[in-house]
Amino acid sequence: MSYRSRAMTRLAWRNIRRHVRRSLLTSLAMILGGTLLMISLPLGDGTHEAWIESAVRMGAGHLSIEHPDFHASRKIEDRLSGELRASVEAALHTPELRGRVRLSTPQVNIGGLASSPSGARPVQILGVDPVGEAAFTILDEKVTAGRYLSDEDRLAAYVGVGLSERLGLELGSRLVVTSQDGSGEIAGQLLRVVGIFRSGVPEIDESLVHIPMATASEWLGIGEDVTRISVLVDTSADVDATVRALTATLSGPSLDGSLTVMGWREAMPALDAAVRVDDFGNYLFQAILFSIIALGIVNTVLMSVLHRYREFGVLQALGLTPRQTGGLVLVEGLILTAASGVVGIALGLLITWTFWRDGLDISAVFSEEFSFSGVVMDPVIVPSFRLARVIQGLVFILVIGTLASLYPAYRATRIDVAEAMKFER
Amino acid sequence: MMEPSEKEAPAVHTRDVWKIFEQEAGEVPAVRGVSVSIARGEFTALAGPSGSGKTTLLNMIGGLTRATRGQIFVSGRELTGMSAVELARLRLQEVGFVFQAYNLLPVLSAMENAEFPLLLQGVEESERRARISELFARTGLTGLEDRLPGKLSGGQQQRVAVVRAVAARPALVLADEPTANLDTAASESLLDMMEELNRELSTTFVFATHDRRVMDRSRRLVRLVDGEIESDDVRTP
Ligand SMILES: Nc1ncnc2c1ncn2[C@@H]1O[C@H](COP(=O)(O)OP(=O)(O)O)[C@@H](O)[C@H]1O
Ligand SMILES: [Mg+2]
After folding, report:
1. DSSP 3-state assignment of A342?
2. Interval A100-106 mean pLDDT
3. Which pLDDT band, with edges at 50, 70 and 90, does B95 fall under?
4. Which pLDDT tens digit goes with each residue over A75-99?
5. In chain A, which residue's Cα lies nearest the Cα of B90?
6. Angle at CA A318, nearest 5°, toward B70 and B216?
7. What is the three-state SS of B193-207?
8. Closest ligand 1 atom to B50 CA
9. How do the domains of chain A map onto residue ranges?
10. What is the pLDDT of residue B236?
């Protein structure tokens, strides 16, 4: 640092320390802002993480590997052959990906019709590996009657409570599911209800049926083929990197065009939109909050500039340029906001960690079960701490501090030195 | 016309300098056609009643106020037409200011105040400390280095201000009513100090003053009345 910048920094520091009350006033607002930021961001991220986790574990995972046309067509002919399935499963076990992937499971996902003596309903049928799926899904924990599928099951069905009511199904009841099979023919399959679940999401409870993979394979005549392999990663923040890594591993002349890796954002655009809208609401709130804080900073820093008119006059008489004088104001504003921003962020993290690291229970506000976009709202919010958010918060605070100091700094460049030095002042 | 080169140039040279303040009530001519030359090493007082334009003239010479008309040269360099940055550099290199209200930076100690222009000039720490200690010793400030201005008497503050003004070895020190806030004893000793600095470092001093004591000690007395030079006498004290 040059002597000049050292002199200026020293002067800035001394001024901040000398005007403790004014400095404190400025910093308190910023500390409060930083604190709120580091409460709302982790809780918001945690909420979204819970939404995503619940949605992906009732469906196709954080990401899934499918035939490129399957997402749009939903047809059994757009499936992955047994060979493709094997190479995908091999890819998921390479050292490169093993570290990223939490769980993966094969699924056969088709639309069809379920009928019972009481009527017929359109349904989504999911052929699953009972053991693998039990670890993957959260639906096995949502059981209200009977049990989840097991390895020995044949011709078994695990159905949503809504569907069971509409079709008058109970444990042990029979139902017939009908769909297009692997060769394009319509095929029916008799099943027996072994378990009923309530996910809390009406769309799922009224339409989803889990059946054993073996049954699906035999019924549809598709052998080892599946419609997708669904993958869970540790947090939604890892999805993009994993999609890239997996795409890279799977790309090769023999595989190109025969499969695609799809992240949850693509697979569930409604949930993606919900997360973005909620984030936007958060950002908007923060923008308003920090605008108020910025106004407070502008005010105190400007007061300090007007109050120190003579001092700035002296500095210019000593040989500082108007710009350097403004720079001093900017440095003061920055030191103050940076310091208080760091304190605020630390405080916010500390509070969130201390009080809510295991979850913040908001069931008092949400007495009723609440769902949207295929997600059940969990009344307990577990905050999610991310380094990126801390850095983002710091940068944000610095930007706000700079912006708020700009106008007062500009005013300091504009002072009339001769006027400032008049003795009568 | 060719201007004399910097070395032999007078510390200050003005040619028909005017300052007219535009006011709502009309124009206020504060300085009206002043032409004056002050050689290096002079100890000159600008005297005159209050409102005669002393401060305005001093501020124009120091580049704090721009002249409405006319030319001003400091060490042979013309101020008219200089940018704000060039004027700042000129003040940093060539001009030291002393004000009636001392105007030390309240958050810096006596030593830090005095060395501030040297810091701005990029002078090394050892050199800075040596120069300021020497000047403090010369001016009876030794021992007060770490005091904040608020803990110094008026006379002491003004001494620090003078040290600050001369430390960077400017061609010129402009002092606007430096003794107006001081009692007789403090005034006399401040004048002693400035005389000594003038004699030993040949720093040029220009005072704006209506203090008899200052006028009596000056070696040249320029009288201003209503913004014009009324008389200009070299004195033998
Ligand atoms: N910024 C200004 N605007 C208008 N008039 C001014 C301004 N500064 C000084 N004056 C006027 O110029 C005249 C000279 O003032 P000044 O130079 O301060 O005189 P002195 O220092 O001799 O007392 C006075 O009439 C004063 O009112
Ligand atoms: Mg005056």
Report:
1. helix
2. 93
3. very high
4. 999 999 999 999 999 999 998 888 8
5. A319
6. 70
7. HHHHHHHHHCCEEEE
8. 23
9. 3-55+272-422, 61-267
10. 72
The interface predicted TM-score of the complex, written ipTM, equals: 0.92
B105 neighbors B119 (Cβ within 8 angstroms): no
Phi/psi for A102 (5° steps) reads -85, -50
Class of domain B12-234: alpha beta
Instruction: Evaluate if pTM is beyond 0.80.
Output: no
Residue of B103, B124, B176, B177 for testing the chain A interface, max A β-carbons within 10 Å: B103
3-class secondary structure, B73:
strand
Q: Are A33 and A290 in contact (CB under 8 A)?
A: yes
Tokens for A272, please give them. Answer: 């993606």
The span from the CA of A94 to the CA of A8, in Å, is 57
Structure-token pair, residue B195: 């005389």
Which residues lie closer than 8 Å to A352 by C-beta, 6 or more apart?
A38, A39, A42, A43, A383, A385
Rounded to an integer, what distance in angstroms lies between the CA atom of residue A374 and that of residue B144? 76
Contact B93, B76 (CB under 8 A): no
Residue type, B80: T
Closest CA to B128 of B118, B137, B120, B140: B118
pLDDT digits (tens, 9 = 90+) for B31-43: 999 999 999 999 9
Whether A254 contacts chain B with CB within 8 A: no
B39-80, pLDDT tens digit by residue? 999 999 999 999 999 999 999 999 999 999 999 999 999 999
Considering Cα of B53, then B56, then B59, then B63, what sign does the dihedral take? negative
A357 touching B (Cβ < 8 Å):
no
B162 contacts B193 by C-beta, under 8 angstroms? yes
